[in-house]
Amino acid sequence: MKRTQSHQKADTPSVGTVSGSDQSRPQWRPQRRSLKSFQAEFDFSLEAICTRMLERHRDTIRTQKPQVAVAKLMRIIQTTLTLANRKGFHSMSLRDLAAESGLSMGALYTYFDTKDTLLMMILGEVSSAVSEALGSPPGHLADDPAKRLHWLLETHVYLTEVMQPWFVFAYMEAKAFPKEGREKATRSELSTEKMIADALADGTDRGLFSIANVELTASLIKPLLQDWYVKRSKYRRRGISPEQYVQAVSEFVGTAIQSRSVPKAPRRRRSDQRSEIAAAEPF
């Protein structure tokens, strides 16, 4: 899914200066981009995700008619996420899934051979969604780490809003995953932190941010993003919209990392910086 020209230039934050005695101090000024505009850029509906899932697993899914396959995949995935939320994926049996979805055991085996295969199919779509939505910031953000950081925070919130059951599943079930699933979930965490850390390091190198430990700061930001989808009901009760949450998190982070000095030209980064997460894969 490609971004349109207009969406590439959507509202983003800026780092400017303030008048008076603080004239030389960079100021974080995030602007708003709506959830609706994000949804116009990317289609992460259940139908779209299951369509891509079918394409990725065409060699193993034994159904010839794409429309039939996508419709049944939607029932399987929706039921799996619902049951996992109710009783836990580890406790869910394939017989539970068959009974709840209205499909026979034979029909289920047309799409996957084991419950672990189903798990990895779901985690694979979460991985692909993160890579697609967060992995390639618009080109005009390359030289503006403040705008890029805001874009990452904003995009993460909006992505997890439209795919909330998927992300809750990956977060809540991680401890019960088999080794392959746990490793994939860990790579997910580290790769998202790396994207944030890259923007933080770039801003620090340019003198826009004042951060003593880039990796630690990135790891502290990540729970703010996770709180949106893990505790979504709390914010719903308070009437907090995704746009309001983006603004609050951006302003909170911006205030915490804002430099008090004049921005400087980029300097060469230390080779050992971000070593812990440099090898992580996108998820």
TrEMBL record:
Residues 1-32, 259-283 are annotated as: Disordered. The keyword DNA-binding applies. The keyword Transcription applies. InterPro entries: DNA-bd_HTH_TetR-type_CS, Homeodomain-like_sf, HTH-type_TetR-like_transc_reg, HTH_TetR, KstR2_TetR_C, Tet_transcr_reg_TetR-rel_C_sf. Keywords: DNA-binding, Transcription, Transcription regulation. PROSITE patterns: HTH_TETR_1 (PS01081), HTH_TETR_2 (PS50977). It comes from the Bacteria. Residues 70-130 form the HTH tetR-type domain. GO terms for molecular function: DNA-binding transcription factor activity; transcription cis-regulatory region binding. Residues 93-112 bind DNA. Signal peptide: none annotated. This is TetR family transcriptional regulator. It comes from Microvirga makkahensis.
